[in-house]
Amino acid sequence: MRPEILFPIFSPVTKLTGVGPRIAKLIEKLAGEHVSDLLWHLPSGLIDRRYAPKIAEARIGAIATMTVTVDQHLPPKTRRLPYKILCSDDTGSLTLVFFHARADYLLKILPEGEERVISGAIESYGEGIQMPHPDHVVEVKDRASIEAVEPVYPLTQGLSLKVLSKAVKGALALVPELTEWLDGPYLAKQKWPSWNAALTQVHSPEDETDLEPETLPRQRLAYDELLANQLALALVRAHMKKQPGRKIEGNGELNQRVTSALPFELTDSQKESVSEISEDMSSASRMHRLLQGDVGSGKTVVALLSMLQAVESGAQAALLAPTEILARQHLATIEPLAEAAGVKVALLTGREKGKTREPILAGFASGDIGLAIGTHALFQEGVEFNDLALAVIDEQHRFGVHQRLALTSKGKAVDVLVMTATPIPRTLTLTAYGDMEVSRLTEKPAGRLPIDTRSVAIDRLDEVVQAVSRALNQGTKIYWVCPLVEESEKIDLAAAEDRYAHLNAVFGERVGLVHGKMKGKEKDAVMAAFSEGSVDILVATTVIEVGVDVPAATIMVIEHAERFGLAQLHQLRGRIGRGSDKSTCILMFAGNLTQTARKRLEILRDTEDGFVIAEEDLRLRGAGELLGTRQSGLPEFRLADLASHADLIATARDDAKLILEMDPELESQRGQQLRVLLYLFERDAAVQFLRSG
Ligand code: ADP
Ligand code: MG
Fold first, then answer.
1. pTM (predicted TM-score)
2. Could you tell me if 690 and 676 are in contact, meaning their C-beta atoms sit under 8 angstroms apart?
3. Is the per-residue pLDDT at 501 higher than 90?
4. CA-CA 20 to 30 A from 405: which of 58, 209, 442, 509?
5. Same domain, residue pair 482 and 601
């Protein structure tokens, strides 16, 4: 239950004066539905109204607050002309200008012969100056009601700054006085204000530097959010650790058979990862390990060898992939190897229906099938395992925590191995996984040549097509990735279809097209034709982004590379350079590149190290954009800026650890306040793991 003290700020925004259903919708879109969401909506700019010149000395272009006498109203002769009001002080005169004005209203707020304080932008007009549509007009006695410095908030269409500012003020007025949850000495050392003071300060910037994430109040709030995140992760983890595990021990026999059937030698980090996982599995506690390895680093084999340990022990293992293409790809890799070891494998996706599905389900239920590979269809109702002991979750960032839990509930004390190809920087790993154990594949399999990456302007398309034509004659396969238009899959598709038609006119049947809207069977057919058969150029939207493995493909053309994120480009490029032939990646861009876009393409040209690329990406833009937070499964932070507050993450992790060591159930005085913090940042789920939560 949420503590009562937080009720006022968790009420809907409609509770605020001036916020009706229409405004509430806009606020919801912009910030969120609760009053608290407005508190986290921080100013992105400010308007300084402290400049209070006399008319004669007012600077053109400045925002000025001035006391003037209203001399004369000059209504326009036609509606199309502006309404003017002449004003003056003892140094000169100024004209107020209004378009589409209502005369009665203007006469009321600016009566002739009286003094008023006005605030707005100064413009030049002929010899004199004017102020179009002043932001504020008040009586002299109310001068103080014009804020010296006004915060400016990010807005959305239809919501004015005036209305939003008023709502934020209303929200701030509802903020309860909360007792400190941070450690006193730490707080003092950081020179941070209290939570209440910090909140007030971030919403009343005095100058531009107050808007920086490094300011003390912004740091403080960011830290609170990060601490809530780390505490929540630590609580979930403590909960999982308490759950009984089981020893999954193998005799190494299947492992041996598969290893000798491999056409290659495992890399050192593959060997190391396999043994780390093996040790976890054979220990009595529950495994929760992350296998992090760049694209092409060979995670699948590591997964297979780990899964075989479960089979050796007489149990089963499942491999969960985010898409059907990937699940099939895994099957293609694993099946021949498993066969060599005499282990049965089956695929289960949404497409295995009726007659095909029955024997698969029966095999899982009887234990006859040792290895299950599939999509989310694996954890749907009706799927039973005889004894599921290990769940491997590939490309985890597409799955939520719930889905992970759903799969582990198909067995008892299921060990979990999460695989990710997204080279998440260490700091981000912490925010997403907390202290989860990590195995890293740090080297590429031997014999890989570096990928030659170039950027080329789109107006050289013909040259690229000619180069592709030459490569085709030498037996090369080519990926042609079409632009990403974020707003609409439809437009993505249209672009891909256009390019397909264009290339088809040149190269005929050798061109194939694959996109997200295709049916599974059609996709498979095209992919199969590309990997084994007649299709040599595969035009694709980003569906090929993860996992697909066609070693003969050594050229990739990416159109509108400037529209992709760095990490995404890196993932895409990882599709080539898998065989022993030299590979080339051509990044085509359109128009004039921005500084950042140019820098991105440079980084990509300079390195193939996914971790370096991810760190650079994080520097160049926010963490949210880095992976597309929504799909990434990374938590979205409202106050913490993962690029500028990175060092606070590790501190929050250590802090959370220490807190729970001393007070595992958050029962102390400070523990109670920390519970409030968890609720404040809506980590309610984590509180449930506390005894008296
Ligand atoms: P990812 O980590 O991206 O999932 P995969 O597991 O798909 O990578 O492996 C990419 C390719 O590298 C596959 O063709 C796989 O057979 C091959 N591979 C994996 N490990 C090695 C190795 N140690 N030496 C050579 N090739 C390897
Ligand atoms: Mg993979």
1. 0.68
2. no
3. yes
4. 442
5. yes
